[in-house]
Amino acid sequence: MKLTVIGSAYQTTIKSTDIELRSWNLVLRVIRYMTQGLDVSALFMEMVKASATVDVVQEKLVYLYMCTYAALKPNLALLAINTPWKDSTDPNPMVRGLALRSMCSLRMKDLDHWGQSEVLTFLVRYKPRTEDEVFAILNVLDGFLKSSQPNVVMATTKLFLLLAEDFHNVQTDVLERIRGPLLTICTSECHELCFLGLCHAREILRSLPGHFSGHYKKFYCTYTEPNYINSRTYNEKCVVILKELLGLKQEHITSAVIQTFRDLVWLCPLCTVTVCEALPGCEEYIKDGEGKQALIWLLGVHGEMVPNAPYVLEEFVDNVKMETSAAVKLELLTAMVRLFVSRPAECQDILGRLLHHVIGEELDMVVRERGLLYYRLLQQGVEEVKKIVCGPRSDPSLGVISGQANEPINAWAKDFNTLIPIYGREHWNCIMAQKANSFGDQQMPDITSEKGSNPEHSEELVLDAGSVRLESRAQLSPERFEEYWTCLEDAKVVTVDWQKEPCPDTIQAAFQIVHILPIAISRAGAQPWKAYLFARNETGCLFLTELLIDTGRTSLQITVKQRNSSEGLLSSFIAVIRSVQTLGKSENVEDVSLATQEQHSPR
């Protein structure tokens, strides 16, 4: 039959009331012609449309067609990637696995760089079974390390680092190979891309401190760069160079160097001693307000490391009546109070004179109020002053990497090509903790219930199992499940005897009857065998569950995670899981459903 006839028939069946059956028959005909050697590539888009079905078998046939003709229709294949991408979030693990396998089967060179990076990101989830398989994958994807697209290089690097987690030499070689592309990213004209590259370069320096030492000039700051890039730029030789500049004894240069010193000791704590050694004598060449503020801040925060710090600040106090900058006065007040805490004998008289002038004679109300604040604070005692005034001296998350113990690459490989290098691990944990705090929130977008939305289904919405009433229509995306599972600690772990071979289809059907829904289930015969499930009760609380059957098939470990959990609620939920007596058996699914319904009928 000619292709035009098939296409015409397909368009005709779209309007038919019996569309599903006819669509199935036409898909079979197209696949039959394809296997016989006929060119049916002209029907590519029609076949893609046919993938919008609930029939898994039909979807599998369509994906087979797509993978076969993707090379001949690269542009259409790029458009078709949205179909398996959407299916990769389907609640059915069989559909998700089929979508992932199909995306991996599509030739990646037929995708643009965004499609390539998405496929590479999905491949991170795959765990090779043997060492030979690891190197086979690395050889196939080796060319993507040379890509001109930053997102492809970053995604490939993460995949390589994780696949080679047991091969340190391979990981080091990969980081050597991406040094050039990463330096290109760090010097990009796009400030956002440059910032991203600098954050990831810092991750590499945790394990290889001298990795970029031969290219330190690439990290010089430019006057056009925003502050968020300057704060991520590193140079081990900058302190030495800046100290040499102080030898010129020119006012504008000295002021600029002191301001840089202030930023440097905040970002690089190990530079503090060297910076403090260079401070004596600088006050003679600083005349502008910004330079004075920087010097006063350094003397106030790190004054115990500068022998003449109280006497330098005393000169500023003696000339405070002539000072026109309110910012300098405010900085001087704070610096004197801070230094008084660490060197009280030398600073008591100086601080007293400063407060007397500020409270009694100062015309600027902001400065006067600040003076009154410190005066009243000092009356509360030194310990209270320390709590308020003596904050952090530097940013501990951005310390100098040189001289620190080298961390293993595996310590940060999982964070590569994510938001963690940008936010920092500590800040990222805070963000995730905030998400966890809203774990049971009814307004969460990915956890919804259709309770009461359809009167005809009102009797099917809630399952009562003792004190646990589980909703049948709760939803949770795999991505959100993974986020919560990572954040939360184990709330309850129970181990029971197990003497069966798990049957995934039977287990999934049995749990769905009691309204415990699957996220991912291992295939039959996998060792060890795992399943991840979730449920939601009528108050909005979620139960995240892992089932683990050991290699010997002797025990089943049930792990439940829940925020703000109670022992009674967890015990009732565990009882629901253990009550599914048909786990792993090979009975007919309908029999399983019937047995479970009889055991847990709604009250």
Descriptive keywords:
disordered C terminus, alpha+beta, Leucine-rich Repeat Variant, 3 domains, 603 residues, 7 strands
Describe, in plain words, how this protein is organized in 3D.
By secondary structure, the protein is an alpha+beta fold. It has 3 domains: 3-206, Leucine-rich Repeat Variant (Alpha Horseshoe); 238-389, no CATH class; 455-599, TATA-Binding Protein (2-Layer Sandwich), CATH 3.30.310. The chain is built from 29 helices and 7 strands. The chain has helices at 3-14, 19-35, 44-49, 56-69, 74-80, 82-87, 93-105, 113-123, 131-141, 150-163, 168-177, 179-186, 191-205, 227-230, 238-246, 251-267, 272-277, 289-301, 309-318, 326-342, 344-360, 365-378, 382-389, 420-423, 425-437, 478-487, 504-513, 567-578, 589-599, and strands at 462-465, 468-471, 492-497, 517-521, 529-536, 542-549, 555-561. The strands form 2 sheets. The chain has a 5-stranded antiparallel beta sheet, with helices on both faces. Strands 1-2 form a two-stranded antiparallel sheet. Mean pLDDT is 79; it is low at 398-403, 439-466 and 582-603.
